[in-house]
Write a structure and sequence with these properties.
CATH class of the largest domain: Alpha Beta
Strand content: 15-25%
Number of strands: 18
Number of domains: 2
CATH superfamily of the largest domain: Acetylglutamate kinase-like
Largest sheet: 7 strands, antiparallel
Structural class: alpha+beta
Distance between the termini: 45 Å
Radius of gyration: 23 Å
CATH topology of the largest domain: Carbamate kinase
Helix content: 40-55%
CATH architecture of the largest domain: 3-Layer(aba) Sandwich
Length: about 450
């Protein structure tokens, strides 16, 4: 918050840059806004909406955090250079906000441009000058020569590799001439040069897209600095007997991210997978870089392998039940047109000689916003809200004898009602659907995690 971890970040970058070139992707900083900790992205959204509603808020809060960080970490030689960029970005923000006020809408390129210059772009420029102040030979990706090209879905953009290749030469030149290149995450540009943004968590996607873009020129790997390496459950839910996870497959990491583990954006892994690449990913504990989790496309299995890597849960889910023929068309539209992947296809069932598909949406708010769209494919669609999903994750769980019955008994013994249980060998997961009420989801995760040793040994509890 307000740059408190910058010294730690600089130390980590220095360590990595001794062995290889570094492209450092930065998110918007955290700050205190309205007496609570907020991302600068949220601050900018709040101010943008205030302009659109003709009740503009003070802009100084969007600049104060950068002035504070610059004062603490920049030497005099770089303070003026950064201030010039800050003034320029502030000017661009003002123009965008005036457009939001005129149009009475804070959307599309106006929104993306405001978020870019209030957050990630400014932070990436600032971090470049901080690295220079610490003697690192660095530079930043210039927003006017941006390497990440996307479509024009401004608020939920999609990476376009072939177009990005046409813009990569300037970026490669920066890499060749420096030890570190700073890049703002979350931000893209259209072929016409208009700013776009990914959905939230987009800095992970930026890192993945840069790795995809550079893999033909370099031997690429990715390193994400986090508070912890990957643990066997979310430490905010389970407090005792957590174990470090040494290796994850892409599939395991993506599932964990979808079901609430703060590892990295599952779409980032999907994009690497879609290009059939095997780029090594490390999740590194910033407090102790010797502790890390390695993520690869495929992970070798050893005799002492822990076949259940993680137990995690997701609240605010919804289940959609509809005719399987209609569901196939809905899924095609979600995947190809809406680029939406935050759902799981559960086992179908037969009702009145008709096969019914069940889709578990991991964001019930999305379903609420798109009910009319979903029901258009089948007027008889049934939608159930108020569901939580808990899952065990491990590609090789099918090797554990009696694992499904063990898990079921464990949850039942804790007086938790299982509304649905979905286990498929091919999906590397066992899904338990419970009511999303009070602490039920967290209690289910705790119950399974407490008994994981017995479950791993195939003991029916």
């Amino acid at each position: 918050m307000d740059g408190r971890s910058i010294s730690q970040i600089i130390t980590r970058i220095m360590q990595i840059s001794k062995k290889s070139k570094v492209v450092a992707v930065f998110s918007a900083p955290l700050t205190i806004y309205a007496d609570k900790i907020s991302s600068m992205t949220d601050v900018a959204i709040n101010i943008g909406r205030s302009y659109a509603s003709s009740a503009p808020l003070d802009l100084d809060s969007m600049l104060q955090v950068y002035r504070k960080i610059a004062k603490k970490y920049l030497n005099n030689g770089y303070s003026n250079a950064f201030q010039n960029h800050l003034d320029e970005f502030n000017h661009r923000i003002i123009i965008s906000l005036k457009q939001a006020a005129e149009n009475r809408r804070f959307v599309d390129v106006i929104r993306s441009r405001t978020l870019a210059y209030a957050g990630e772009i400014t932070m990436s420029y600032l971090m470049d000058f901080i690295m220079r102040s610490n003697g690192i030979r660095s530079d930043h990706a210039d927003i006017d020569n941006w390497p990440i090209i996307t479509d024009d879905n401004f608020e939920a953009a999609n990476f376009i590799l072939e177009e990005s290749k046409h813009h990569v030469n300037h970026f490669i030149d920066l890499i060749e001439r420096n030890d570190v290149v700073s890049v703002g995450g979350f931000i893209g540009k259209t072929v016409d040069g208009l700013e776009t943004t990914y959905e939230r968590g987009g800095s992970d996607r930026t890192a993945a897209d840069i790795a995809i873009l550079l893999h033909e020129n370099y031997d690429v790997s990715m390193d994400f600095g986090k508070d912890n390496a990957v643990l066997s459950a979310d430490p905010k839910i389970v407090f005792n007997n957590l174990e470090s996870v040494e290796y994850l497959s892409y599939n395991e990491a993506r599932l964990a991210g979808m079901f609430g583990m703060k590892i990295l954006d599952p779409v980032a892994i999907k994009e690497i997978n879609d290009y059939n690449l095997d780029i090594p990913i490390a999740i590194t504990n910033m407090n102790d870089p010797t502790k890390k989790t390695t993520i690869r496309k495929d992970v070798p299995v050893t005799d002492d392998e822990n076949f259940v890597k993680m137990i995690t849960g997701k609240r605010n889910c919804s289940i959609v039940r509809m005719d399987s023929n209609a569901a196939s068309h809905l899924i095609a539209s979600l995947e190809k047109e809406k680029m939406y992947h935050d759902y799981i296809k559960l086992s179908p069932y037969i009702q009145d000689d008709i096969e019914i598909t069940r889709l578990l949406f991991l964001d019930a708010d999305y379903v609420r916003r798109h009910e009319r769209f979903i029901r258009a494919y089948d007027p008889e669609t049934k939608i159930v809200y108020g569901r939580g999903a808990v899952t065990l994750i491990g590609d090789m769980m099918w090797k554990i004898p009696g694992i499904v019955s063990s898990v079921s008994h464990t949850v039942g013994d804790h007086h938790i009602n299982i509304l649905n249980l979905d286990a498929q060998e091919e999906t590397s997961r066992i899904l338990i659907i419970v009511e999303d009420k009070d602490t039920i989801v967290g209690d289910t995760v705790k119950a399974i995690h407490e008994q994981r040793k017995q479950i791993l040994n195939g003991v029916s509890i």
